Amino acid sequence: IPSSHGHGAYDPAKPCKRLVLYFHDILFHGGAEPFNATSATVANATKLGNTNFGKLIVFDDPMTRDAHLLSTPVARAQGFYFYDMKSAFNAWFAYTLVFNSTEHQGTINVMGADTISAPTRDLSVVGGTGDFFMARGIATFRTDAALGDYYFRLEMDIKLYECY
Amino acid sequence: IPSSHGHGAYDPAKPCKRLVLYFHDILFHGGAEPFNATSATVANATKLGNTNFGKLIVFDDPMTRDAHLLSTPVARAQGFYFYDMKSAFNAWFAYTLVFNSTEHQGTINVMGADTISAPTRDLSVVGGTGDFFMARGIATFRTDAALGDYYFRLEMDIKLYECY
Amino acid sequence: IPSSHGHGAYDPAKPCKRLVLYFHDILFHGGAEPFNATSATVANATKLGNTNFGKLIVFDDPMTRDAHLLSTPVARAQGFYFYDMKSAFNAWFAYTLVFNSTEHQGTINVMGADTISAPTRDLSVVGGTGDFFMARGIATFRTDAALGDYYFRLEMDIKLYECY
């Protein structure tokens, strides 16, 4: 039936591929760079509320298999996020996971709301290339650590339901 | 036939799910906030032309079932738009509809051009989560009201063709 | 099998539709506009590194069938890119190809990393409308020309694997 294509075709509990990776974001604060910054503020917060509404950050962040910042990255996350709520910290992300290793070559493209106050939140995997050709799925975020506005770490549980 | 996958699989007139909602954008103008602003300018217009080229707005806008601004929102639209034409008002949007009610839990992710001069314009629903798990479809915009750069209202006719 | 939906369904060498187009980006530098600028800087580069990290550009660029800037455009590319690496030039794009001619009516939505140092790089076609209703696929970028930060030209090889 065209109008209900796909109904029941996927089982959320059974992705065809799954990658659990950690995203490390170290925000640049100007001057010297003691923390080896991986992201920078491109537009400052507006005066709407006091929870960074409109603050826009571009990042090129390492992705690791465990929670250790200094583990060898298995991918880079390249993209941006911005804060978008005037009464609480809430963000929106769009980015590409770039894999360039013997294990994986290719990219995974993600976008969606990071409703920070929720224990976990789901974003959409909207496409992929190379080893992840035409992938679609869900990226589940969980905040794993946060140190003021200097560093935060997200667990990203990437579940693909279309694999080719 | 792999090279023509899906040919004819969907009938544009028969979405598997449809939501017609109104998007209310109230732009912050600094100082006090008499209009209960829901969006703010993150980067000002450039000097290329005089139709706001490059002006970037982040929003957290209420979505209602009817055209009344004060109706109870059924979702939030969180994302951004910017103007991108030097001879006319034309915009580009990427955002997430966030549903958090007894009726719907989940998100719908949208991106595309808002060619404002057209009576209606189609953007892509590129993914979904929760109740809208793995959704794809079309979001048709129609300008329903505009009051200078203080307020505008769009009808968003969300038609999903992949429902799971 | 739900968990491996689509495995082997597409042959990367056999798109159901293919468009090879040239993207021309002429960056506005203020003042008079001798080069008929089609893009403008919305946020300047940050001080993280010296390869334009964070520089954000909005564009409304002509797309032509051959490499000549002055050929009649067959579409407009409307969207943005930003630089996102502190040690090399690397970018990230999201945009819509807007077709409005007797040949094609509709849009194609694209996002992904433009890892400039690679000879070619793949981004995701995440959706389409009109003649490209519900399209998905790959957009392969190749730099065809670059003149400082005044002009660059990309070949975009758009391969759709879902056509309806």
Q: Quaternary status of these chains?
A: homotrimer
Return the CATH architecture of chain A. Beta Barrel
Estimate nothing, just give the exact number of structural domains of chain A: 1
N-to-C terminal Cα separation of chain A, in Å?
24 Å
> How do the helices and strands follow one another from N- to C-terminus of chain A?
EEEEEEEEE
Summed over residues and divided by their number, the pLDDT of chain A gives a mean of 93
Q: Predict the CATH topology of chain A.
A: AOC barrel-like
Task: Describe the main β-sheet of chain A briefly.
Answer: 8 strands, antiparallel, barrel
Alpha plus pi helix count of chain A: 0
The CATH class of chain A is identified as Mainly Beta
What's the name of the CATH homologous superfamily of chain A? Allene oxide cyclase-like
Percent strand of chain A: over 45%
Largest interface: A-B, 38 and 41 residues
Tell me about this structure.
The structure is a homotrimer of 164-residue chains. Chain A has 164 residues and is an all-beta fold. Chain A has a single domain, classed as Allene oxide cyclase-like (AOC barrel-like, Beta Barrel). In chain A, 0% of the residues lie in helices and 53% in strands. In chain A, strands 1-3-4-5-6-7-8-9 form an eight-stranded antiparallel barrel. The radius of gyration of chain A is 17 Å and the shape is globular. Chain A starts with 16 loop residues before the first strand and ends with a strand. Chains A and C meet through strand 2, strand 3, strand 4, strand 5 and strand 6 of A and strand 6, strand 7 and strand 8 of C.
